[in-house]
Sequence to fold (125 residues):
Amino acid sequence: MLLAEDQEINRKVAAGLLQQQGCRVSFAANGREALEALHGDDFDVVLMDVQMPEMDGIEASQRIRQLRDQRKAQIPIVALTAHVMQDDVERFLAAGMDAIVEKPLDMDKLNQALKRLLVPREATQ
Fold:
């Protein structure tokens, strides 16, 4: 799992919650770093903060969807944001994000999104 989040405290809190559930978490501090991480590793999902410096989550999601490697271009992206007005949600979905989870991170809502987006490995073999 790749967590793209610019705020260190948010990274620590999210990592703790995710690791308690047995998730292996890698980090990116902005959208540019997230793209670089995707080029070098395989992830099941990207948790993408929407507002980050250098490259925000919207631009990073759009660029992920344009990758030549179709497997990586189709990776599920979950927006992490405090902005959940309908206009915001529509903008995030149009950018290629697959789900939106409101901050502060609610593990029940994140788990619901992940269950909907991730196909168990056994089903794909």
